[in-house]
Structures are given as C-alpha cells and as structure tokens.
Amino acid sequence: MDIPQMIFVNLPVRDLDASRAFFAALGYSFNPQFTDENAACMVVSESIFVMLLVEPFFQTFTPQPLCDARRQTEVITCLSADSRKAVDGLVDKALAAGGTEPMPARDYGFMYQRGFQDLDGHLWEIAHMDGEPS
Fold first, then answer.
1. What is the C-alpha to C-alpha distance for residues 87 and 127, in angstroms, rounded to an integer?
2. For the chain, which domains are there?
3. Are strands 111-117 and 106-107 parallel, antiparallel or unpaired?
4. Which residues have C-beta within 8 Å of that of residue 22, sequence separation ≥ 6?
5. Taking a C-beta distance cutoff of 8 angstroms, is the pair 30, 50 a contact?
6. In whole angstroms, what is the distance from residue 121 CA to residue 72 CA?
7. What is the pLDDT of residues 1-58, one digit of tens each?
8. Alpha-carbon distances, residue 48 vs 72, 74, 83, 109 (angstroms)
9. What is the C-alpha separation between 31 and 45, in angstroms, rounded?
10. Distances from the Cα of 110 to the Cα of 82, 83, 105, angstroms
11. Which of 8, 7, 22 is nearest to 121 (CA)?
12. Considering the entire predicted model, what is its pTM?
C-alpha cells in the first residue's frame, strides 16, 4: 500500500504563542506530539503540516540568515479551498485574527484567490479552481 507523500512547511516565527492563537482562530489544530516551547505542528490536512518554529530554533536548521517576511518575500504558500465562499471565509478569519490582506481578491474566471499575511509577514494564498467541488 502506497503512503501518500506529505509536506511539512517550516516557518520561523517571533512569538510562538501568538502564532498558535492566530492559526487556531483560522480553525487549524496542532499535533501535541510535535509541539513544544520551540515548535508547533499545525495540521492543515492529513498530508499537509506547517511547523511553526521560533526563530532561534529555526536558525539551527540553516546556515543562511533568516528573511524578515514583513520586509521581503521568501515564499508564498498556497492552499486550495472547496469554494469561493471558503476562500473568503478563511481570509476573513485571518484578517479578524490580526492578519493583513496585501492584495485585493483576484478572479481569473477559472480560479478565484485571495491572500493574507500572518503575524510574521508570511504570505498565504487561498484559491478555488473550477473543477473542484463547490
């Protein structure tokens, strides 16, 4: 039996408690088995996880200097959504929890997307594409 490939996105954060509260307000849960004072394992789906790592701990994984995502863009993480309403709902939750919306919604006809910046400036895109269940 093939096990589906998983993805673990690792993001540096300044304040782990604030980041956990922010993403919990968006409806995400955390796996306590991989969560401690240095890291929190946010469960996005059965195969997608985001490791929120305090900056000093994150720095132990790379010799490169950390990017300040509030001033530079290092990556845009895009997640699919089941509907346009789900896109708007998640982004609206992010804004209510203290995130910002760096660009207006974009409607390409076949794809609708909106995004937000989390408390550390990381960019998140939420997209619904035609052909996905609504």
1. 6
2. 1-61 (3.10.180.10), 69-134 (3.10.180.10)
3. antiparallel
4. 94, 97, 98, 99, 118, 119
5. no
6. 9
7. 677 889 999 999 999 999 999 999 999 999 999 999 999 999 999 999 999 999 999 9
8. 25, 19, 19, 27
9. 11
10. 13, 12, 14
11. 22
12. 0.88
Token pair listed for 121: 């400036």
Other C-beta atoms closer than 10 Å to the C-beta of 42 total: 22
pLDDT digits (tens, 9 = 90+) for 54-105: 999 999 999 999 999 999 998 999 999 999 999 999 999 999 999 999 999 9
Q: Which amino acid is at 3?
A: I
E-strand ranges in 17-119 read: 29-31, 39-43, 48-54, 76-80, 106-107, 111-117
Cα 133 to Cα 52: distance, rounded to the nearest angstrom = 30
